[in-house]
Specification:
Rossmann fold; Hect, E3 ligase catalytic domain fold; 4 domains; three-stranded mixed beta sheet; 17 helices; 22 strands
Length: 526
Amino acid sequence: MATATVQIATEVATRTAREYLRVSKGRGRTARSITDQHTQNLAAEAEHGPWTWGEPYKDTGSASKYATRARGDFDKLMADLTSGAFGEPGDVLVLWEISRLARETGKGVAIIDLCEAGGYLIHLTSQGGDLGRTYDPRNWSDRAELISGINDAEKEARKLSARTLRGVNSAAKEGRPHGRIPFGYARDYEVIDGRPRCVRQYPDPETGSLIRELFERAAGSDDNLPEPVYAIAQDWKTRGIRTPDRTVDGKLVPGKPFHDGNLREMLTKAVYAGLREHNGTRVPVQWEGYEPIVSRELFDRVQRLFANPTRRTYLGTGVQHVLTSTLRCDACGGPITVRCRKDGAPGYECAKKGCARVDKAEVDRIVIGDLEAGEPQLGVILAYLSAPHRHARLRRPAADFTAEEATVRTELAGLRGELEELEAAPRPKTARARLQRTADMEELETDIAALETKLGKLTAPDPLTDILPSDPGADLIAWWMAADVHRQRAVAALLLSPVLLGQVRITPSQGWRDPVTDRLKWETAA
């Protein structure tokens, strides 16, 4: 009998315990830390051990099915339990609580099954008193209790997800801000129903002006051309403008200089113009506590510039020639540059392979025009700008719209009226009626957003309106003569596109004296 007792004691003494330690992190707070879990697990050994501690498994992140980050050590635990690398039969998997393991019943049961097959025990430190309880998955009662705990954890995770999603959708529909505060904004909070709620979002006194500056510089004005985002980023770096400081794992991480990718992303955020994304479209925020930083007009102007594929051609500081960014070689598709012959005469030449070369002055005369010669000659660009109706069309009055636009505006006004009536109507008494009203309002909002998008396309101004003078009576020829090369390049890039006048491509010479007009190929969209 004494021999048997010694043998059992030896088996207990050589039992190995391996922890699975996981911590979920939320904004501004951390669940019971891995260190705390380990400390309590060590205390449990005094009653349930002695154990020899093996290498633990550690993960940071959610155990829910909604988690987006992979849990590397959880996968390793599964693999070790499957292969037997976890340990010998009788060894213990130590958890602080069952929810640390999994909040999906299927995954939790899979772990229990593997422990049962390998003869491993499962200890829960937070269950069954201060020092926990050890479960044997081979025992039907222990197995049922473990599975029940995992099932309860999954139920709570799903309830929390549903409440969170409902709150986010409600906030998004009303236009109330949620999530991280965008750079340039500040928020005021009040405690409502025991929880802090955002009651106002407004431009931050310090950083809000930077957002306005960013949009204004990117959009340009009558006096200034749009600036490259990269150049703005470099200027902000020189001025010491950095991203906000943040806290990671309890440590303060200083902000970094903005790079052009950061600024380009901010320039596309509709939130700065008082817009919200709803069903894939942008609609104005109706929430009274919201204050935009930039106007809708300025935001739309920046979006037009970003959507314009020739945007880069009218940015920069070292350019000297109007057409070099626009002309292309017809043989290889490469860019055209200006190079001088031995006699000093400049010519347009393929910068990629030297496929083609043509006299610069003659090309400029044909494509642009020559107003300084004895007999002024209008080229393609100046002839286009000189048309009497050109500037009037670009500056069309707001009330002067087509029949299609009129139909869309009428329909839009009707839908907005219906939505206002629903919003102003008394609150329905029954739950079914309230749900139906909500569905009707969402359908109206979707239809309104679609019509606003359609109207925006019908009334979108010509890209030239962002470059040409704002005075409807301005002489565009005189304006061209007085404009700097950057602005002339901007107009040339917009006009000499396949969808308008055609992209000008220079073909290689087929003979000694081929006319320049025969060397210019105008490529237009089908």
